[in-house]
Structures are given as structure tokens and as C-alpha cells.
């Protein structure tokens, strides 16, 4: 499994599968943790760490850090899309990198978003989990 270099722990690297499991637990349509996330995020992270990742010994701090990082990338993607739209298709990473650079030149905060990360969000369903209509859009705008 490919891993994000910026999301590695000392002894326990997070895989794409781990991050998908994290997002599905917190944001999925059958999530039992979303309401807790909205009301008491610290408790939600602790519950996910013990109930979802218990056998892998993930800490609440690690769960929080990975979720917050993914959420930040989602905000960068929204900023990117505000200038480019989401036209669909499957452009090459190089084309996405160029579009991201253009968005940054236009004053959009895209942080360290790259075409590779963008494709991963779209391809692994992370974008849909964050953008799911079952969750209040106003919540994301306030949080992000």
C-alpha cells in the first residue's frame, strides 16, 4: 500500500486502507461517530481509536492528527475546485499539478495539495465521504 509520507507514525505507518477506515468510521453513511465528532471531537477520536483501531494500538491523538490532516486537504480541494470546478474525467497528475499551481497563483489557499493527493481523494472515495450530503455542509464551512 502506498502511504503519505507526511502521515507516518514512528512505528505504525497508516495505509490508504487505514485512512479509508478512519474516514468511513467518522463520516460514512452508517457512521455511529459523526454526531459525537460534531459535539465532542476528542471523545469521537478516542472511541474510534479504541473501537475501530483497537488491535492496531492507534492513539486518539494519532486518529485526530490523521483526520485533521485529511480534513485540511479537503479544504484545499474545495479551494482548488472553487476556481477550476470539478469537471470530472481523469486527468493526469501533471495536468492536476498545473491546475493546482494556477489556483495558487490566483490566490487560492491550496497548501501543499498535489495532483497525486487529489487523485487519491477522488479515487479512494475520501472526497465523497467528506462531501456526503448526509452531513451538513454548514458544519464543514464552520470547521474548515
Descriptive report:
The chain is mainly α and 144 residues long. It has one domain (14-143). Helix content is 62%, strand content 0%. The protein has 8 helices and no strands. It has helices at 16-27, 34-39, 41-51, 60-84, 93-105, 115-123, 126-131, 137-143. Helix 3 packs across helix 4. It is elongated. Residues 6-11 have low confidence and may be disordered.
Percentage of β-strand residues: under 5%
- What is the approximate shape? elongated
Uncertain residue ranges: 6-11
Number of helices: 8
The largest sheet is: none
Query: What portion of residues is helical?
Result: 55-70%
Radius of gyration: 15 Å
- Counted beta strands: 0
Average per-residue pLDDT, rounded, comes to 84
Structural class: mainly alpha
What's the number of domains? Answer: 1
Span between N and C termini?
28 Å
- Element string (H = helix, E = strand): HHHHHHHH
Amino acid at each position: 500500500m502506498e502511504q503519505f509520507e507526511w502521515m507516518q507514525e514512528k512505528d505504525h505507518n497508516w495505509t490508504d486502507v487505514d485512512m479509508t477506515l478512519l474516514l468511513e468510521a467518522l463520516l460514512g453513511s452508517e457512521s455511529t461517530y459523526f454526531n459525537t465528532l460534531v459535539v465532542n471531537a476528542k471523545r469521537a477520536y478516542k472511541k474510534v481509536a479504541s473501537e475501530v483501531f483497537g488491535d492496531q494500538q492507534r492513539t486518539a491523538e494519532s486518529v485526530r492528527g490523521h483526520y485533521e490532516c485529511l480534513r485540511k486537504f479537503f479544504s484545499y480541494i474545495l479551494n482548488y475546485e472553487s476556481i477550476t470546478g470539478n469537471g470530472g474525467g481523469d486527468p493526469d497528475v501533471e495536468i492536476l499539478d498545473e491546475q493546482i499551481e494556477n489556483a495558487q497563483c490566483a490566490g487560492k489557499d491550496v497548501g501543499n495539495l498535489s495532483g497525486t493527493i487529489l487523485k487519491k481523494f477522488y479515487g479512494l472515495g475520501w472526497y465523497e465521504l467528506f462531501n456526503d450530503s448526509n452531513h451538513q455542509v454548514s458544519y464543514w464551512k464552520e470547521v474548515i
